[in-house]
Amino acid sequence: MEIKKLEYDLTVCKLQGVEDIDLSREFFFICKTDEEISLVCKTEDVPQNTLARDEGWRGFRIQGVLDFSLIGILSKISGILADNNISIFAVSTYNTDYILVKKESFDHAMEVLCSAGYSVI
Fold first, then answer.
1. Alpha helices in the chain (DSSP H)
2. Which of 8, 100, 110, 118 could pair with 57 in a Cys bridge, judged by C-beta atoms 3.0 to 4.6 Å apart?
3. Neighbours of 92 (CB within 10 A)
4. E strand residue ranges, 16-117
5. What does the angle CA 103 – CA 29 – CA 115 come to, to the nearest 5 degrees?
6. Quick one: the chain helix, strand, coil %, rounded to 5?
7. Phi-psi category of 48—alpha, beta or left, where left has phi over 0 and alpha has psi -120 to 50?
């Protein structure tokens, strides 16, 4: 299975509202629940008015479109990383899964995933 590195720094934010998000930007995730609004975006695209923010993330995606019937893909990757003391922040889309790790752990994460048989592109 291939994983593709994202070539930019990411920030995880908590927002009061969505009006400050620039929807024309290339890459971001928005999640709104009954308790909060969260945003993951390129660090350079973080809105001015955040309630909280956590910088210093890097990410990768599982390459290709994943069928909903596939089982354990995210579990296997997160297990490999957990076994190597690398914590994750995961986000899923209709097509695939994205996994974020802290920047200082990113190279190590790529190494252990390669050792486990994943191709990194």
1. 73-83, 103-115
2. 100
3. 13
4. 28-32, 37-42, 50-62, 89-92, 97-102
5. 40
6. 20, 40, 40
7. alpha
The closest alpha carbon to 64, from 96, 36, 88, belongs to: 96
If 0-12 CB within 10 Å is exposed, 13-18 middle and 19+ buried, where does residue 100 land?
A: buried
- Rounded to whole angstroms, the Cα distance separating 44 from 98 reads 19
Rounded CA-CA distance 113/88 in Å is 13
Question: Could you read off the pLDDT of 69-98 as tens digits, one per residue?
Answer: 555 678 889 999 999 999 999 998 888 889
Architecture of domain 2-120: 2-Layer Sandwich (3.30)
Q: What pLDDT does residue 65 have?
A: 56
CA 83 to the chain's CA centroid: 19
Is the full-model pTM beyond 0.85?
yes
